[in-house]
Design brief:
By secondary structure, the chain is an alpha+beta fold. The chain has 3 helices and 3 strands; from the N terminus they run E-E-H-E-H-H. Strands 2-1-3 form a 3-stranded antiparallel sheet, with helices on both faces.
Amino acid sequence: MFYIYILYSKSLDHYYTGHTHCITDRLNRHNLGRSKATKGGIPWEIVHIESFKTKSDAYKRERSIKAKKSRKYIEKLIAG
């Protein structure tokens, strides 16, 4: 199983979208500063997750969310 996830940093008031096969490991790496893109926003919390059968599908969904470049869209996803 593969996942897309949206993280939120309260300190930056910023969302980050990514994909992975292991949510807990990926969140830990973000919060340990091992990702250059999210190092400045520690601590991050998961606010949205979607699951996919293939890595390709998860990656396509991640790109789709990022292509919208819309905080409103992300907040709608989170709200359900």
